Amino acid sequence: MRILLYFLFSLLSISAWAQPSNDDCAGAINIPSIDDYCSSELEFSNVGATADLGLPENGTAQGCFNDHLNGVWFSFTPTQTAAVFNVFADPGPNQIARTNLNVYTGNCNNLTFVSCSRGTSDDDELHISGLTPGQTYYLLVEAELADIDFTLCINEFNAPRPPESDCDNAVVLCDKTAFQVVSLTTA
Predict the structure, then answer these.
(1) Secondary structure element (H or E) that encloses residue 172, with its range
(2) In what side-by-side order are the strands of the sheet with 72-76?
């Protein structure tokens, strides 16, 4: 009986300290459809994740940040040309997560940087347009200041022509297809 209890305790101890299955790109959790996808509340975690080294740079740093210390990976294949990604983190008492998102394309042995977002709090949002429908992309989610549990939401859409603030340059909407406007920047 003691041996059985010791064995069970050992298994529980090992699993408590195990790396997440999606700790590296090759183990990325596939999200089959990103059309209004939202995980269960705090379904994912980067607790126990290890550093990701050798990621492609965007010219100045590896994505929006220099260190990839505790990222976890997801893969998706869009059917539309744009997507918005949201991460809602729960880092624990008296901690700020400061989540970061990076998107890559290619394969895990030869990734190409696409876009990134550096969060300023426990929530992060990233808008990407110019996605190629049918092509596989990889999303890296990490937190700078803490290990986190998080909810991941993604919604894809076909991006309209960028909106204009003047009537004579207005974007004509031809149907009831949903779209998102990130911001208006002209007077």
Answers:
(1) none
(2) 29-31, 72-76, 137-143, 99-107, 110-118
What is the distance between the terminal CA atoms of the chain, rounded to a whole angstrom? 76
Backbone angles phi, psi at 72, to 5 degrees: -125, 155
Partnered with residue 27 across adjacent β-strands are none
As separate numbers, helices (DSSP H) first and strands (DSSP E) second, the chain gives 1, 10
184 burial (CB, 10 Å; 0-12 / 13-18 / 19+) is exposed
pLDDT tens track for 65-117: 666 788 999 999 999 999 999 998 886 666 667 788 999 999 998 898 899 88
Burial class, 78, CB count within 10 angstroms (exposed 0-12 / middle 13-18 / buried 19+):
buried
The DSSP secondary structure of 64-105, one letter per residue, reads TSS--SS-EEEEE--SSSEEEEEEEEE--TT----EEEEEEE
The answer to whether the predicted template modeling score (pTM) of the entire model surpasses 0.85 is: no
How many residues does this entry show for the chain?
A: 187
Q: CA dihedral in degrees (75, 65, 98, 31; nearest 10)?
A: 0
Q: Tell me the β-bridge partners of 128.
A: 83
**Structure tokens belonging to residue 118:** 């550096």
